[in-house]
Amino acid sequence: MIFIVLGSQKFQFNRLLKYVDELVSENKMPEEIIAQSGYSDYIPKNYKATSFFSQDEFRRNIDKADIIITHAGTGAIITALKKKKKVIAVPRLKKYGEHVDDHQLQIVKNFVQCNFIFEAKDKITLFNRILAVKTHQFKEFKSNNSEYIITIKDFLKHE
């Protein structure tokens, strides 16, 4: 299954939903697809989309998915990587009214350089990444939150 995750910020990401809808209609994506479409107003014709799932439903969809296609938000990417999912991120772009700036370009670039995820910029690269992600060997993501917590605790002890 492919789970599309578009975050919870009040920005549409119709472009990504349309890319997937077109690929499904062209018989290029035979997998089951479920989308958490957030504040997008595009309604897919060829797969299921829900604006927001409960936390339990969201976790179940993440667990069930083989591939996560997401905007390039750090929360969505890290959540998927912690669950050892294959991730394709499509950065939101300011010119399409998908965000206030293009910071997601830098976020996705950093994750790609570390070989944690793939990036897709348009429908063609999205299709190519979907084909490639199934066999690509990504580097395993390891969270370093515990190191940050230790550093903060050490700092507070010495105050």
Quick summary:
With 159 residues, this protein is α/β, with parallel strands linked by helices. It has helices at 14-25, 55-64, 74-82, 103-113, 123-133, 145-157, and strands at 2-5, 33-36, 48-50, 67-71, 86-90, 118-119. Helix content is 42%, strand content 14%.
3D architecture notes:
The chain has 159 residues and is an alpha/beta fold. The chain has one domain: Rossmann fold, CATH 3.40.50.2000. The protein is 42% helix and 14% strand. The chain has 6 helices and 6 strands. Strands 3-2-1-4-5-6 form a 6-stranded parallel sheet, sandwiched between helices. Strand 1 (2-5), helix 1 (14-25) and strand 2 (33-36) form a beta-alpha-beta unit. It is globular and about 60 Å long. The termini are far apart. The mean pLDDT is 92.
CATH class: Alpha Beta
What is the 3D shape? globular
Q: Rg, please?
A: 17 Å
State the low-pLDDT regions, or none: none
Quaternary: single chain
Order of helices and strands: EHEEHEHEHEHH
The CA-CA distance between the termini, in Å, is 50 Å
By DSSP, the count of extended strands is: 6
The CATH homologous superfamily is called Glycogen Phosphorylase B
Strand arrangement in the largest pleated sheet = 3-2-1-4-5-6
- How many separate structural domains? 1
In the CATH classification, which architecture applies? Answer: 3-Layer(aba) Sandwich
What is the CATH topology assignment?
Rossmann fold
